[in-house]
Write a structure and sequence with these properties.
With about 425 residues, this protein is an all-alpha fold. About 75% of the residues lie in helices and about 0% in strands.
Length: about 425
């Protein structure tokens, strides 16, 4: 592996300097972040719209919950493989170039799937294959994004940047599925794929304008460099527990999103209702993220993280047994409000405790949790095929609640986590 030389990286990274969280400024006050924001808004809407279109198309072709889970697995497995190494590469190479490349390839994948769909030549294996390639693309995109955007703002705007960055996917979950569901009901799934390709291409254009982050001099192998990030997490108990919590939350509970076409059909719904369900979850997540960004929990940050995760699992148990789609939509919003609180609070806790020179590697490991969430669709889909969609959706939340209670009782440092790392017990 060739070296990348700009600045040096220590073999034993030190903790980041104390974060100045008292005097905050908005990340949108800085032009580079505004450019990043514009491109990411379109890219995240493209990602969500493409996922909805893929699920609907696969459901039309097969009518199988297991197939829906299979598409999720086809995306998640390569995404997980690339996530960690993507974090290493984000530290070794220019992160904005990785972002640009992944955005361009993502656009081309959706164009290809749209052409296959509109010409009526698409088959399930096409969707599986493109989902696999998309997983590789997303696996490079996520850690590059997490490593890159903090470089666009000063420390005083870090929490604002994290909140805004986290809210983009949630807001995309509101707009893209609703508008996409209506359009695809009228014009079919090909339109969804073509619109999604335009969103990814817009992010590619944004990366041509954005400044470089810079790279770090590395003289070790990729695997040893990767070990630095993993070792940093293992040596910091709070980060390790938050990682386990993030993985478990996405695997055990979030997988229900991948089952929406099958779950909505339980109530006699179709494409439009699937779009509404995505939007309901998105509204809740967006609200939770924005509330978390406005809060100053201080020494109650740990309670906020655990409480958000617990509320997500608890309400999803009720969702699984809801009598009507209207009730499901309302409850899904409240459930994902809790998930939004959990996600943004835990990301803030991690980002403020990670040194800049290994940020890509550490956040690459944490980015795997998003892939795990997609893979959760396979877990939920398999259970749904064996014991029914409702019962299959209940198993994960029960396991998650037991885990949250165990962490609350046994992990005092997590329970007492402070927003300011210098005040941690």
């Amino acid at each position: 592996m060739s070296e990348v030389e700009t600045s040096s990286v220590s073999s034993s990274p030190k903790a980041p300097a104390p974060a100045q969280i008292e005097r905050r400024t908005s990340a949108l006050s800085f032009k580079p972040f505004r450019i990043y924001f514009g491109g990411t808004v379109l890219a995240m809407n493209a990602l969500r719209l493409g996922a909805v279109a893929q699920g609907l198309l696969m459901w039309e072709l097969t009518g199988s919950p297991l197939s829906l889970g299979g598409v999720a697995a086809a995306t998640a497995i390569p995404m997980m493989l690339v996530n960690v190494f993507g974090g290493v590469f984000a530290d070794r190479f220019e992160a904005k170039l990785l972002l640009g490349g992944s955005s361009f390839i993502g656009a081309m994948m959706f164009v290809l799937l749209g052409v296959l769909d509109v010409t009526n030549t698409v088959e399930p294996w096409h969707i599986f294959s493109i989902a696999t390639f998309s997983g590789f693309v997303a696996g490079a995109d996520q850690p590059s994004r997490q490593a890159y955007f903090p470089s666009l703002v000063p420390k005083s705007a870090m929490k604002s940047a994290i909140t805004i960055n986290g809210s983009l996917m949630a807001s995309a979950s509101v707009v893209a599925p609703t508008v996409g569901g209506i359009l695809m009901t009228a014009f079919g799934t090909p339109l969804g794929f073509f619109i999604a390709s335009l969103g990814w291409f817009s992010m590619f254009v944004a990366t041509l304008i954005l400044p470089r982050r810079g790279t770090f001099k590395v003289q070790r192998s990729v695997l040893r460099d990767l070990g630095t990030g993993i070792g940093y997490i293992r040596s910091h108990r709070v980060l390790l527990v938050l990682l386990i919590l993030a993985f478990s939350n996405m695997l055990m509970v979030f997988g229900w999103i991948g089952m929406l076409p099958a779950f909505v059909e339980e109530f006699g719904g179709g494409k439009r209702e699937v779009g509404f369900m995505f939007s309901s979850a998105g509204i809740g997540a967006f609200s939770g993220i924005m509330v978390a960004g406005r809060l100053s929990p201080g020494r109650r940050l740990g309670w906020l993280i655990l409480g958000g995760a617990a509320s997500f699992s608890t309400i999803m148990l009720v969702v699984s047994n809801s009598p009507s789609l209207a009730v499901v939509m309302i409850l899904a919003a409240f459930a994902h409000f809790g998930n939004g609180l959990f996600n943004i609070s835990s990301i803030v806790a991690v980002q403020l405790r990670v040194p800049e020179d290994i940020r890509g590697r550490v956040m690459g490991v944490f980015a795997i949790s998003q892939s795990i969430g997609i893979l959760g669709g396979l877990w939920t889909g398999t259970l749904a095929s064996l014991i029914g969609i409702r019962a299959g959706m209940m198993v994960g939340p029960v396991i998650m609640l037991v885990m949250i209670f165990t962490i609350f009782v046994t992990q005092r440092k997590v329970r007492k986590l402070h927003e300011d790392p210098t005040h941690d017990e």
